[in-house]
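Give me structure tokens for this 293-residue protein.
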Amino acid sequence: MPELPEVETVRRGLQPVMEGAKILVAEARRPDLRFPFQPDFVARLKGQVVTGLGRRAKYLMADLASGDVLLMHLGMSGSFRVIKPDNVVQPGEFHYPRGKDSAHDHVLFRMSSGADIVFNDPRRFGYMKVIARHALDEEPLLRGLGPEPLGNEFDAAMLARSCQGKTTSLKAALLDQRVVAGLGNIYVCEALHRSHLSPRRIAATLCTRKGEPTDHAKRLVGAIHTVLNDAIKAGGSSLRDHRQTSGELGYFQHSFRVYDREGEKCTTPRCGGTVKRFTQNGRSTFWCPQCQK
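Here you go.
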């Protein structure tokens, strides 16, 4: 599933053709994706100007002049294709390839910018929903999301408080969207390796008995910031052959230190260990037992 940097990369690819443009035509070519489309889904979009395109966790959020917000989630296999008279761009060509069969083109937006934006989703785990902005705080899909990992409020103290008393593994805690929003399997593996913390470590060890952050928490927050920022600068981590709007390629998967590198030598200087894989909470975990404690 695309994670925060992939979604941010898609947002940046869509922004030039969506933001400030009017939705001239909106089409939902099937009654549902993961969830049924609202009966008034198309009607609430047609003729609306997109005043801003943002992101919350793994959600794209298009602000409309009407006061509504179009909430979009890529799911497991969803992708957007921007079609202009002179070219076609797919913002976010992922490490796990996205679908391109037009039979799976389920939603279309024709914009006054001259672009057609097509949402393709072979597995149909993605979804879209129009929500009144004043009702966002009560929206079940968003309610309970934790802080943005790149937001000013996310620091070692906040992470320690969220993990205080948790007997789950550190990896499971970081994948809990209530603890921190937007992280997924790839980035958790990478951040834990960079902070030299075991994915099996108990989450509560990030917090002292007095409720203060340990050095582990400080290292981990720094690693999360670094890996996410590096991934976004590269055009989105886990991308396969994505071209940014500047034309530059995004290939951050070549910077993976442990993810999908089972059996390879650990990249930590003077470690000498080997990357291992095991199943944790139904997901593959990649780590170095030698330097992650």
